Protein 1
Amino acid sequence: MVCVFLVPSDVTERMTARMAVMRKTVLNYIFRGACPPGQPSCPSTPSTCDARNNCSHCEPITLELCMNLPYNSTTYPNYLGHATQSESSVSWESSLFPALVQTNCYKYLMFFACTMLVPKCDSHTHQRVPPCRSLCRSSKERCESVLGIVGLQWPEDTDCNQFPEDGPTCLLPNPDVDECSPSHFKCRSGRCVLSSKRCDGHMDCDDDSDEDNCGCVERGLWECPGTRLCIKHSMICDGFPDCPLLKDENNCSVCKDNELACSNHQCVHRTLWCDGTKHCSDSSDEWDCVSLSEGSVVTVFRTAVDYHVCGDDWTMDLSQLTCSQLGLGAPASVTLVPDPPSVPGRRRWLHVHPDWRQRNGSALQGLLEKRGHACFSRKRVSLHCTKEDCGLRPAVRLYKRILGGRVSRPGRWPWQCSLQSDPSGHICGCVLIGKKWALTVAHCFEGRESADLWKVVLGINNLDHPSPYLQTRGVESIIVHPRYNRAVVDYDISVVELDREVEVTSYVRPVCLPGNGQLPQPDTYCYITGWGHMGNRMPFKLQEGEVRIISLSQCQSYFDMKTITTRMLCAGYEAGTVDSCMVINRRRALLTLSPHSRQ
């Protein structure tokens, strides 16, 4: 059973997102054993270059962050207490300042940061040249308050009074001089990166601007015909449509007239389609083989055509198997209904195999056989299953544990939905908890409280193109938790009433809600799912990954400026995997617990 615990997420405000990145960057340094000066429990770092050990000599600047300066040599120690460029390159300041630059708090912040990290070396005296006091003060006055938002302090070694007033003995930026050398590209944030990294398909600028206005070819990607959408070459003919109108999956199979194409474009003889045995390597020849036509009549898609099941020899055990295969509850009623005499042509029939009990088949289509065109009773099987259970995924089988995240397959999370509002499109992730109800975060509706502005999209994996399983519903009403407070981001949950019930299918169905007292325990595992951007202008595909539950006390130790309440859940890994530390309350994700997941 798969149970939902919290469904967070929206398109976070740009400033908040940048601050979160900055906060996380500093935390990563703490995890590695380093510590930003000025933070609690941070020991001072002794310098090997001091009054007794004068290391002054000019050396070329190699710190990539600062390759855009009007000077090209530096000397150490610098103004942050670093003894070498290598030490500067791994310092917390070398990560903090670029993140702070993205907030656009001060135009010349990066220039100031570089004069601190790699101070200019005077070619005559081999002494460092300081920044001017006015540059330091402007940087601090405009950017220190931004650091305060995430509980960080301005670097303690940057006391502006230590620097001289404006004059020839200190450095100021020249607004008329391009800050990047001819061999570098200037990011919107002010950072310079090597020109060879422009349009290489990798985000090298802090703001991704090195990948702006790049054609697909320049970025080493494939352009979807008729659009400017770029996808990786490995996505062509991979069985997953990524381009509008499925154009990346066209002309991928060269199957004979008597063959059918698998989802991965292999070819299988049509007589083997939906026979109960896997012939496609991805098993797609056995997908969606059984359905209930006309609401209740058992129908099997054999050899690419629909067959009805003859009621002769039908049993209650087969009814149970069929309801289970469809992801529904136990059979409520089974009747054999006469075939209408008005049906034109000959009816296609499948019969129960005489030794079906010995065949050990888990799918109905493997227990049936063709015996000409006759059915002795000429009665079809009409099956009504009980109310469908929650948390079932009949479209796919679960895969082994996934670390690091991956694109999710259609039908793997049939309760995942997208809250959308024109003209923005996707705003928040949500989860279907009933035929007419969805769950999401409360902060999704800030500034857009009217139900008329919203719609819920279900049965979709890729937000960029239509899905054959897609269902769209309007929003009847929005119920935000009465104790939700945006200032502290607690009770961040809401319920959405749809304008009409969804049609329950293998790709759209509700999730289970946990019972009273059913809480995930630390060191157990859960899945996070949600839509993440696959690079610049890449398709929005549903992502999934497995993360470990972290105790609230351990989580609180990571967020000293934020109160972690019992209404929140922490999950994550060490830096570099799915997420280094994530509070399930502010992310674009759906959290499900799966210790005993149904297949």
Protein 2
Amino acid sequence: MAPVLNFSRHMKRHHGNEKDVKKILALPAGHKLRKHLLGALRKQGNFLIYKTLIKPVKTGNKYTSHLPCVNCFGFYSRRSLCRHLKKCTGNKMVNTARAQADAQNFLIGNVPVDSELKKKVFPRMRVDDISFIAKQDIIICAYAAQYLNSHQGDHCVKVASKKMREMGKLLLEVQQLEPSIKNLFMALRPQYFDILVEAMKNIGRCELENGNSFSPSIASNVGNALKQCCEEALSFRWKRETQNEIILEEEHIDQIKILIVLLETQWKQSVSNLIDKDIHEYKLKNITLILLAEDVRKMTDYLTEAANIAITALETDNEDLYAYQTSLETIFCRLVLLNRRSFEEIQALPTELYKSTFNVSKEKQEEVDRLLAKPEKILMNNFKRIFIQGKKSNVPVLFSDDMQKHIDILLKYRENIVQKSNPYLFGNPLTSQPIIGHKVFRKYVISAGIQNTTFFTYTKLKKYIATLSQLFTMNVSDIEQLASFLGLILGVDISSYKLEDKLNQITRISKLLILMEENRILGIWGKKLGDIIDLNEDLLSTEIDKSITPLRTTVDFAEFNKNNQGSSNNSQCGIKLQRENRKGKKRIIIRWSSNQKEAVETYFSQHINEKRPPRKRECIRLKSLYPELLANKDWLKIKVFVQNKYTKK
């Protein structure tokens, strides 16, 4: 096509009979509106011609991606698109928050996809090459539409978007390995099975190099998604759909069926071996950091303190919006920390579901209590469980006793602050939508002063539990309960969260070394490694011994050197050393002063009235308030003192 040097003259000579051109030519030459209309007409023509080869209005960085304006059809960079929309004539968009997503959807055109998918999922997807190629592919769109139609809930929109991006990322990697493949339908052939495996391997390696989480379960899910895409491709023939040149012949049908068999029999083994190898090599090259329990404790203390202050302010002023918002957000963050649940699952909890679940009759509760042991009854009285809608099925969520009390206070004053149209327990008071969970959680992680902020995500918190649970001796039933609670797959996920060798050696092998050092190896014949030693008890007693009085080992060894003339003398010295060690473990009682008693009773008065023992962090907080007064009391002695007060011992 020959370039047009003078656009206005070309329109006058060759398109003078067109309706839009007549309106433009009716204006006098040099008129401002005439220039503007000619520019708009030029942009429309460029949009139709340069859909694949974008020609921006303003030349700039050639590597910058450009998007079209939905009003004038001109191509602009992402940074300047929002500024242009505010000045563009005929612009009906008031909010430009999703201007880039709307522009990308407009650039795709009329792709024959499900209307609900185009309305709900497309605007929520990130604007990049992965989303663009996924939105254009009819097989990927059909696969996501099938999921969206078979699941209900607002969180399913995000899951559908994630599934589309996973397949779009795979297709983009396949096209780099084999440029002749134009869409996913062309890749669904047995001869491209190795390319699909190699593409999945490259994606896993890239994710690990970028520091993102990646596990064999992701590769397994992509294999299942490919099988569903094959089934969607076969369904086009039964539905007699021929959009986008998808015409299935008998040869194509047989090839897709063969690929389904390969995916069922060889995909998991082929991909998992490659991914496991890459993960192992990555761990050797990089130091793997485990989420520190100290950070979790610090976060929990900060949230508890902020919640108590906000609840007190809310009870003082029943219409305090800031206090209500703070209480709501802190309870939400504490639920995430306790349950390791997805933000979207918890934030979408309906208020009526919470109320109906907790109205359990006392008769049913008494029947359950008869079947439980005493420790289990205590846990049942302090924790309540409800089921909410998760990604796969209903998932449990545990509420502690203090969370329940705070939520009851929020429900008491909810009508004064929250709109009646908002059905969510964690609803935004100013709208009818729930709070944005990941943003709220991120805000409080930063406010708490956590150093390792990258570890405080839902996925890594869940993996943290799955990893550290291996420190405990758990039978098959316990592991199944843990996997069900965390939403993990036993055969894939649990094995991928294998405990690090360093942590495993410190916690398990050190038990054996301690016993050998203390010459207690003969008393553990036939026992399991996990049952050999109570590590907490021994380490605690060791710390108490060091804090009470040092052992007189120097004197004993001096006597040993003096009397070291035979085996009998050696045994006598060993007996003397053991007796001296036993004397070192003698308990020393330090009486409580009247000032100490008064300080502890005042601080824990509510605990004593409710007959509730204080927690470790609460005792440590009290010690920080009176460091000199309680210098000779550790947190355990403070806790026992409070328990003795309300038990009258």
Protein 3
Amino acid sequence: MIEAVILSSWDHIMGPQIQKLWFVNDCKNNLLSEVSCNTLREFNLSKHNKDILHTDSNYSPDMEVYSIMCGQLLLSEVDSCKPYDEWASRLYISEYKVIIAVVFHVNSWMNCINEIKDTKDTCLCFGTIFKCKDLGFVLKNHMFIDHHLRKAVDVMQNSLIPFDSMMKKVDEIIRNIILELSVLPEENLVSLQNLKYPSFQSFVNSSIISKALASHLQTSGCCVVLGSSEVSVNQVLQALSLFSSQKKSFSSKGTSQISPKPYFKGIFIQESNKDTNKESEFLLEKAFKESLSLTVVDTDLNKVWQTLAIQGSNNMSRYSPSIVNETGLLIPQFLNDLAFIQQNGGDSELFIENFNTFLLSKSASFIKIIDGFR
């Protein structure tokens, strides 16, 4: 169940600064313990000194993990925290912890840690933290948690009352979240009994969920999930659908999605020795026609791939083809090399075939895309 609630800010010199931290001691009895400002202040100043962190009994070992997670969320938003009214919902899955957070911007903030009376233009991260073993519960109840977090954010952004009174309101919202979450597992268990496979973590490794989420956000919510396990495909879709637009979703067997906001294509291939070429060709051609970047998740290989839209010359189709590469390893150099070979009379067909072989070693599903260059 919920482990802690955190409010963190970003300092361009010191990095993430924990502003408020509540540990949940007992969900059912709604018992919270708030870490004192003095402890947080000392932690923020000494967090780069491992000896102090590991020897001082005032610091929970998890505080460092919390700070790092919030820091990465804040760092990704701090320079793009544009308008005052823009909020970013985020789900971060690390090796041991999961955080559901809202990252937002305030024009003015009373910094209770560094004793700065009025800090201008501050980026804040407010979130609930869970253990990784609770990932299935987190995914199922993400929308509920995010809704309540936004209530607290609205109070922090728009409250005209004194700072201490405002934080008391936030504290009430936190206690309400914990109280309502404490009764959800029993309710969810009833609905999960109707599913063929009620356990989330039994089938999908959290690392592929994390990679898929990162890539999915990079490609603006366009995603395809492949796999020979119907359950795994739908579970990945369930996780990714938390950050979805309202696009129609269906699977090749017509499997109903668990997620409340389905939006991408899931492919379930029944044969264990599957040939996904035909299905992948259809999906990649669709991305090609819509001129979109695409995330492709293969649950069998535990791999996440991306397509990269390539801008062609004026005499080419305005819908440029895409090259499929591993996430974070997009290779525009391939096009540059191909153009160089063609300009100098080289054997471009052999070059493409060699590149096909390279892709084949990665995944046989994505070869069709290269034909666009022939």
Protein 4
Amino acid sequence: MKRSEISCFLLVLGVVCCGSASAQSFTFVPDDTVLSGQLGSEIVFNITITNTSTSTLTLALVRTLNNLPQGWESSMCLDVCYPPTADSVLTTPAFGSSPLNPGESRPFSVHVYAATNHGTGTVRIVARNTHNAADQCVLTFTAISLPTGVETNAKSAASFTLFENYPNPFNPSTRIGFQIADYGMVRLKVYDVLGREVATLLNEVKQPGAYTVQFDGNKLSSGVYFYRLNIGGFVATRRMVLMR
């Protein structure tokens, strides 16, 4: 697969898009890319940044898309939290932060405040090496507000739930659970950090209900993987770690 094909595929997946996988100096890994919450709540997306290079790394974190319903706001937190008006921050003392040392991991988070008006908001963050513009990763987050007392038969994101796998980290197998409220074609697949499909766990029609699928990572190397549930127009992605 060509580099351009990898970048496009990963952007559609909504997990991570790396401009130059062969020269990547860091990883930018989310716990979730789709979350929901009640109106008036704060929806928080947690991401882990890791410097995988042998040099100190300064990153720029840029909000390139902030498509939110009227009355909503989003903001970013690194070592400190920044106001909703801040579209870019750097891992430098000027932003209350510091460059990442080799091998260092640091939490980063995107906060969406669903203050008024129900709807769906999208925020896109680009993490970029300040010394190499091609060395970047892109994450797109979707926040959904849920009306209080949603009917059980309402067709909303609340009707389709992808649970965290257990155990996580795992070796060599783990269980992935999900719940669906409608009859339909269910696809559950596993990808590596480059967006390459490594396993298809489900690709069949399912009745409404709760399900658990076993994933065996015996043939895979240690590292971060993503599992993605797709049913109808609902897509959710979660992160898991295979640790030998």
